Structure formats: C-alpha cells, structure tokens
Amino acid sequence: MSATDFHRTIVLLILGLGAALAVSIPAYAQISPVVTEADIERARRETPTITEQDVELARQKYALPSDADRRSAPQNSPNLEALPQPVAPAPVDLEALARGYAGQSDAMTQAQGLAAGPGLFIFVSLTMPRATLQGLVGQAARAKAAIVIRGFANGSLRDTVAQVQGLIGKRQVAIQIDPLAFDRFAISKVPSFVLVRDGTRPVACASGSCAPTDSFLRATGDVSLDYALEHMQRAAPSFSPATELFLKRLKG
Description:
Blueprint: H1 3-29, H2 37-46, H3 52-61, H4 67-72, H5 94-102, H6 105-113, E1 119-123, H7 130-143, E2 146-149, H8 157-168, E3 174-177, H9 179-184, E4 192-196, E5 203-205, E6 208-210, E7 216-220, H10 225-235, H11 240-251
Parallel strand pairs: 1-2, 2-3
Antiparallel strand pairs: 1-4, 4-7, 5-6
C-alpha cells in the first residue's frame, strides 16, 4: 500500500468515527425525561385538595360523645354490687387481746428487762398441736407466766393475732413476739420453759442483752408446766423459792 492510499484510509476512519458519535449523542440525551409545565398542571389537577369544609365534616362525623350522649347510652357494664362477695373473716378483737396483755404487764416487763421478781416464760410455736398450746396457755394464765413466740404466723400480723386470740379466749395471758428472747436464753426447741431468778440483771451479749447463765433454769420437752417446774426444783434446789411461787399459783 502506497503512502497516499494509507493517508486516505486514515481519513476515512476518522470521518466514520465522527459520524457514529454524532448519531449516538442524541440517543443518550433522550434517556432523561423532561418535566414540562403541562405535566405539573396535570399533577396539580389529579391531587385532591382538602378544604376547611372537609375538616369540619370529618370532625362532626368522628366527634367524641357528649355527656348527654353518655347518659342516654345503654349501660352494658356489669353491676358490681350483684357479683358474689367473698366471705369476710370475723374481725379480730384487738381490744380484747390488749386487755389480756395488760393483765400480765409485770411478766412482760420481766421478760424484756429482766426486772425485779422471778420470771417464768414458756417458749412455743404456733405450729405446735393446738391441744398442747391450749394446755400451756391455760397453765400460763394461772401461774402468771408469759408465752413467747419467735415471729408471725405465715408472716402475717393479722394471722398471728387471730390465732393467739383463739388460744387465749377471755383469759389474761401475756403473749410476746420476741425472736431475741430465743437467743437470750439459747432456745433451740419448743416447748421450752425458762425460770429467771429474782433480781436478775441483764448482761451484754450477741442478741443485745442476756441473762447470766447462773440466773435462770431452762427445761425442754413436751411436758406440762407443773412437771417442768418440779423438775427444776429437784435439779436446782437454790431456785426453790421461785418454783414454789409458781407451783402454788398453778395449784391455787
């Protein structure tokens, strides 16, 4: 191929490429749509317009009922007064229970502060058989001894008061809830009987205040109060004045 033919071929290729580009540019330009004023106006006509009248009609249609409407509407709610009522438990006579406590205030004072005069305490649990509890409560009332329990029955003060009231009835018995007293006299089993010597004074201990070990006697077992006192009298004759005092009350 001569130089002239070579140059002619190059010129033809350049011209062909330019023509191809000129054709393709309009094709790409048509891909992006053009939004005209007519399109905007048509979209405006097709979009609904909400007027003040439309808002007012909707407010009237979905308005909340007035007080008059509520009063005139049928009552579909159940009549609570007609529903079955739970059986109300008998009220606990706290005043009567307090009178029982007041009758034995001296014994309670001795239990708390170990004051002057011998003290006799019966440590029990409300989970003990009821017959056993009633027997001990009756003996405590005659001997002017105090019944001591560790805590509330079922964790409830009301349940405790109800059970205690059922046990003491009209008798005057001091019944204390005193968990520290169980520690003070090292009570690990019930029933336990503790006789505190006259003139005992408390000493410091882990539970706050305790009776000196030589100032009280302790007996444990499912026995009557008089049996426990007679056992103490035989085991510790030095406590005879105190045991005789309470035995005399029991027999009198």
